[in-house]
Design goal:
159 residues, alpha+beta, Tumour Suppressor Smad4, five-stranded mixed sheet, 2 helices, 11 strands, 28% strand
Length: 159
């Protein structure tokens, strides 16, 4: 990134980040608009792309699940012995086997298996997308949000 690029980007987004804020007011921004789609798995594999920080864990409420070993399934119905996150079947727009997170070639991929859609950082996933630390997965109605984080200082295995 070129020197000053972050500051220029913040200035460009200032009207969207602080609508109606009084002059000189200090505001806290927790979400930014995403101006591009999720990274498609096929395109990143062809380009040899590897995300800067591969997530090591998926967080949902008080639950934390390790990523990178075996595939992690997310849905309303998991089979005995499947590793994953089972969400309430009463959640609207949630499929039995909604999506999965799979390690492949040093990356983690989010695969959408649902008829209802899976979103990554607010953008619909078309097939599969590469995951990075800090990403948010949304599914169901009202949307359930899953956060992807990286363990620092631990002995987490690479995917």
């Amino acid at each position: 990134m070129e020197p000053g690029a972050a500051a220029l980007g913040a200035l460009r987004l200032a009207p969207e980040l602080q609508p109606g804020a009084p002059a000189g007011a200090l505001t806290l921004t927790t979400r930014l608009p995403w101006d591009r789609p999720a990274l498609p798995a096929a395109a990143t594999a062809a380009a040899g792309f590897a995300p800067a920080a591969v997530p090591t864990h998926l967080c949902f409420g008080h639950r934390v699940l390790r990523l990178g070993g075996r595939p992690l399934l997310i849905g309303s119905q998991l089979a005995d012995g499947e590793y994953g996150l089972q969400l309430p079947a009463a959640l609207q727009g949630l499929s039995r086997r909604h999506c999965s997170i799979v390690a492949e070639a040093g990356r983690l991929l989010l695969h959408d298996h649902s008829r209802h859609g899976t979103w990554l950082n607010g953008v619909a996933v078309a097939g599969a997308a590469v995951l990075q630390a800090g990403d948010r997965i949304q599914l169901g109605q009202p949307p359930v949000e899953l956060r992807l984080v990286v363990e620092e200082g631990g002995d987490a295995p690479a995917p």
